[in-house]
Amino acid sequence: MSAYVDISGLSKAYPAPGGGMQVVVKNFNLRMTKGEFVTVIGHSGCGKSTQLMILAGLSEPTEGGIIISGKEIRGPGPDRGIVFQSPSLLPWMTAFENVMLGVEQVFFTATEQERRQIVEYYLTVVGLGDSMKKYPAELSQGMRQRVGIARAFALKPKMLLLDEPFGMLDSLTRYELQAVLLNLWRREHITTMMVTHDVDEALYLSDRVVCMTDGPEATIGEILEVPFARPRDRLQVLESPEYPALRANLIGFLEHRAHLRTSPPQHKTPTVSLA
User: Fold this and answer.
1) How confident is the model at residue 196 (pLDDT cuts 50, 70, 90)?
2) CA–CA separation, 134 vs 132, rounded Å?
C-alpha cells in the first residue's frame, strides 16, 4: 500500500556568506499514512520549519520531492492548510471575514449560504461562536490562534501543517487549544504534521514523533512510535506507566543523540518496566 504522504530525499541549501552553499536539511525521508498525526522535534536551527515550509510549497527544495495523495506538490495550494505560530490575520477584517477569505477562494462554486455555513461552523467549533464579528485587535492571542485553526480546517485540506502553533501562548491557553485541535482533528481526520520544541506536546498529540539531528545538514535521527490509544485524555496520558520512558527517550535524544548522525533513522519503541 502506497503512502498518503511521501517525502523523498528532501534537502535545502542556501548561499553561504563566505561563498559556497550551506546545507540546512539533508536527505529528509518520511512516509505518512492517511489521517496520521506526526510531530517533528529538534533543536533551534535544525531545519524543522524549513522542511515544513517546503511541504507547504512556500520554499523550493534544493533536492528531493513530495507527493501528497498521489500528486507531486509544486508551490502552495489549498490542499495544505497552514497554522503558524502567529496567525497573521488581516487587521481590517473580522474573524468571520478572515476565515471567509480563503473559503471564497476554495469553494467558489458553492452558494453564499453554503460558504457562510462553513465559516460559522468552524468558528463555532473552535469556541468563537460569539466572537465572529470581532476584529483581531479585539481578540486575545489565544482567540486569534483559534481563528487561525478555524481558517486552516475550513479549507478542508488534504494535509494540515502546524508550525509551533502554541509556542507564543501561556500554559493554560496552550492546553485549551491543544484540546481544540485534537477535537477538530478527530472529526476531520486530516493527515497532520506539526513542528514543536515541546516533548510533552509531541507525546500528547502525535502518532509518531520524528526527531531531527542538529544542523547543519540536519536529517531524521530517530522516529518514536507513540502507543497511547485515541481519543486521548491528557491526565491519563501523563499518568500512563509508559509515559516517563517515552519522555526520557525524547529528552535523551535532544540532549545527546541529536549531535550524532544515524542512517537510516532508528525507530524507537522503548521497553517500559512496570515493576
Assistant:
1) very high
2) 6
